[in-house]
Design brief:
It contains 10 helices and 20 strands. It is of the alpha+beta class. The two termini are about 45 Å apart.
């Protein structure tokens, strides 16, 4: 395991008496790809700005390689930043954009050394031969790679990326996810990446930090936060989730809708209320009335997604999402089977009861589709 490079220790940040970061602590390892993930206003960009030196926490410590850097200005930190708006110099060509920071370095670099470093970095970002192209003539993905090359050519220990894929279309975003991961692995520079897109976080990261309300909700590998969410917010934000009330009757046994089921979780008190997470892809549809049917529900909606169907099923007034390749008609009744390893148990939290019922999504869609609602009504709901 690589050594710790950055540490935030009990950092709090407030603007106009509104707390946006609430006593967070975070450790970032050398050569790690770490993603700060969460909805707008969760504090992820403020955390990035604190690391970069653009914002100073009102309390707490910021450490780089063991040295406290709270009062160190951004230009003296061995950190560089790529923003969503790439801020390229459109009057300069690709070579001059990438070389800009090198020309400001002291002691001064020779023209030959600058040319070598620029060519080397353009090779890394797959823009070999683009030296003389005007920056304004490039596609969005090419402009982003120029911005990354301009930041990386200075050889920072850390690259901060604030939603850099936000301006790209879906196909290009997916291509650039692979490119960013490749670049990070090739350069062995620590990447700290900010996004609200959970797919980006899962695809690229070594470590995901899920945030909400200025608080870190969970830190872990992509597999950990997806398969073992700590609370209902994480379970809902990372992928699709059915989150229902349950009672832990004993270690390895939970009761849902009055039916006892085997699970793999333990460490709860006897008969302790809990949140139960079941991912849509982990639910098996079985013949109605068969011995394998653990619950029976009615199909209320079916959406074809290409490789699978999204099926909404009503179980005693609570609507679940099931993702399956088997078509079940609307109005029909189905049985489902849950394996023990598809059931994940979480402690009750302040997020309990807020997520997981897909009737709420239907209600939001109905509001959007209702022509009688004015623009102000829709905005207030958001």
């Amino acid at each position: 395991m690589e050594k710790e490079l950055i540490r935030l220790e009990n950092c709090t940040m407030a603007f106009d008496d509104e707390v946006v970061l609430d006593n967070i602590s975070l450790s970032i390892r050398d050569k790690e790809f770490l993603t700060l993930l969460g909805p707008s206003g969760c504090g992820k960009t403020t955390t990035l700005r604190i690391i970069g030196g653009f914002t100073k926490p009102v309390s707490g410590g910021v450490f780089f390689d063991g040295v406290r850097i709270n009062d160190m200005p951004p230009h003296k930190r061995n950190v560089n930043t790529v923003f969503q708006k790439y801020a390229l110099f459109t009057h300069l060509n690709v070579f001059e954009n990438v070389a800009f920071g090198l020309r400001l370095q002291k002691p001064k670099l020779s023209k030959a050394e600058i040319a070598r470093l620029v060519d080397e970095m353009l090779e890394v970002v797959s823009l070999r031969g683009f030296n003389n192209r005007d920056a304004s003539s490039l596609s969005g993905g090419q402009q982003q790679r120029v911005a990354i090359a301009r930041a990386l050519v200075l050889k920072p220990r850390v690259l901060l990326l604030d939603e850099p894929l936000g301006a790209l279309d879906l196909r290009l975003r997916k291509d650039m996810q692979n490119e960013l991961k490749r670049i990070q692995q090739q350069t062995e520079i620590t990447f700290v990446y900010v996004t609200h897109d959970q797919e980006e976080a899962l695809a690229m990261s070594d470590t995901v930090v899920v945030m909400d309300g200025g608080i870190i909700q969970q830190i872990g590998s992509p597999e950990d936060v997806y398969n073992e969410p700590k609370n209902a917010f994480v379970a809902d934000f990372i992928g699709e989730s059915n989150i229902v009330d349950g009672i832990m009757r004993s270690d390895g046994e939970v009761e849902i809708f009055g039916r006892r089921m085997k699970c793999l979780d333990g460490g709860f008190g006897k008969d302790e209320p809990a949140d139960v997470v079941i991912r849509p892809e982990d639910i098996d549809i079985v013949p109605l009335g068969s011995d394998a049917a653990m619950l029976t529900g009615q199909v209320t909606n079916v959406t074809f997604k290409g490789v699978h169907y999204d099926i909404i099923v009503d179980f005693k007034g609570f609507k679940w999402l099931i993702q399956t390749t088997d078509l079940s008609p609307v109005g029909g009744k189905i049985g489902i089977k849950l394996d023990p390893d598809s059931i994940h148990i979480m402690k009750k939290s302040r997020y309990s009861g807020m997520f997981g019922d897909y009737s709420s999504y239907s209600a939001e869609y109905d509001d959007i589709s209702d022509a009688s609602l004015g623009e102000d009504d829709v905005e207030d709901d958001e």
